[in-house]
Amino acid sequence: MKKVDFSQLLEKILSEVRDRKMPVKEALRKLKHFPFDACSFARIDIQRGMRQGFPEVVLCEGKTREQSVEILGRLAKKHPVVLATRANRKIFLAVRRKHRQVKFNESGRTIRIGKISRTSGGRVLVVCAGTSDMPVAEEARETAAAFGVSVDTLYDVGVSGIHRLFSGMEKLEKADVLVVAAGMEGALPSVVGGLVDKPVIAVPTSVGYGASFRGLAALLAMLNSCAANVSVVNIDNGFGAGFTAGLIARNAEKSKRRR
Fold it and tell me: Does domain 123-258 have CATH number 3.20.20.100?
């Protein structure tokens, strides 16, 4: 395979813009799919933020500590805020030796490098059924917060004590989008969906006894929800839910400004 010299390619694009041979919009389109930062074990997508609204997030699970630290370090050179998921304390300690501003959420298993600047008035509410669902909820919370939106929580409000949920109605009504995590029978997102006129992102968790099948029962219940505003991500995928919620909240704020 022929090696691509990205510096020459970039120079060509910029030269064509300067000489008015290429429109600026066309140059931006090409740059969105431009280079990656390659090392011996990874090709890091440094332009993902241009395409998807947030930089590549590092999944530490399955990687060595050294690999995770190297990828995070390369991303941190390009972006003010970098996020890692499914991380452990050993990875965090190794990252902290190389970066000054690092936050570790042990429950959510996330690492964040850099300080989040509040860039949007969009609001996300993360809800979970029980304390056992909190690790997944915390992964969602940390991910959504990285978008610079407001993130609030409403935890331990499962359907076995449904009155606890109603005490948080003000929070439910203020949010632009809700993430709802639940295991067992997975009923909570349907209940929440029936109470609000906002998108509800349901996250089945692998919490529950034998017939819950490690989250499969909750997943199927959520997919069969009768609440039309409920969408579902994969089992324990707090990251995916938080990412989508962050995008929705940020775009909701943009829509408010245009009105």
Answer: no
